[in-house]
Amino acid sequence: MNTATLTIKDIDRIIEMAWEDRTTFEAIELQFGLKEKDVIVLMRKEMKAGSFKMWRKRTNGRSTKHAALRSDTVTRFKCKLQKTITHNKISKR
Question: Does residue 45 have a pLDDT over 60?
Fold first, then answer.
């Protein structure tokens, strides 16, 4: 998916998913068609420079952000304490 066709609601959801520790880049790609490099470009465009640097530092090398690097003990993609997410395209199928 081209980032130019995303709605404001979609962009907000992608940013939210990108900040979540347990949501993989593969889950974002499945829902929105954006590869990891596209998410990085979107985050750089939509966030303040300091916030973007903090996010990159936080996600760089984090095993829970990549399905292939995840431990088999991680069986869910969101924290059990996280509120139910609205506008989640997968859950509404």
Answer: yes
